Amino acid sequence: MPSPADSRPPARIAFIGGGNMARSLIGALVRDGVPAAAIAVAEPNVELRSALARDFGVAVHDHACAATEGADALVLAVKPQVLKDVCAEIAATVAAARPLVISIAAGIRIDQLAAWLGAGVPIVRSMPNTPALIGAGATGMIANDDASAGQRAQAQAILGAAGTTVWIDREELMDTVTALSGSGPAYFFLLVEALEDAAVAQGLPRATARTLASQTCFGAGRMLVEDGEPPTVLRERVTSPGGTTAAALEAFANGNLRALVATAIAAATTRGKDLSERYS
Asked: Is the pTM of this model over 0.85?
């Protein structure tokens, strides 16, 4: 089992890429007490680079190699289409130092990262989501056999700074994680859009409809997380026979909502698999 020390983030962390997800993780780590001096970021965009240095006091670089020097952990926070080139740039440094490598790139498999970075590198593939920006993220993770229990705990400490983390047993399921929680916030935003539009069509002012729909989504989510009951139980509690909720749920059932959701998740899962092939 990892020791308590292993459960803390490593001494020096380098982020390759300084976009929204990296920014959310950096902000969460700093809020959790990780010294800004322990974090370095490589980001080619000068405006993003300057904002990270100004807002968090972290060291910033315009090239990946400069940020990776001396790092105990690297967070690969770049787009899947550029990840292969980024790995080529830092491969020599990674091969020499063997830092923990954490990827948050959608669709890129561990075996692809190992081929690009070299054998024997401890790798954690992960898929966070955008609510990490407000500390409410959900991240699925899987590690290769080269990652020790302590390094797994360190990866969890880094990614868990911005929300909930779960370990996945089989890597092929990471595409389903991407479809469920990685892309999932967009599904809820779409639902709130639809609820808002439907309420406006019934006569509510749009501002009122948006407030009520957004808060309802927020409150239902909190109940799911904090109550501990399965969603089926929570749904049944608010559904009186012959009542208004039952009427709405019957309309969803007649429209085959469950089948539509299943089709959407399957489509997103397939697209995740396609990404790994496209950028191999």
From this structure: yes
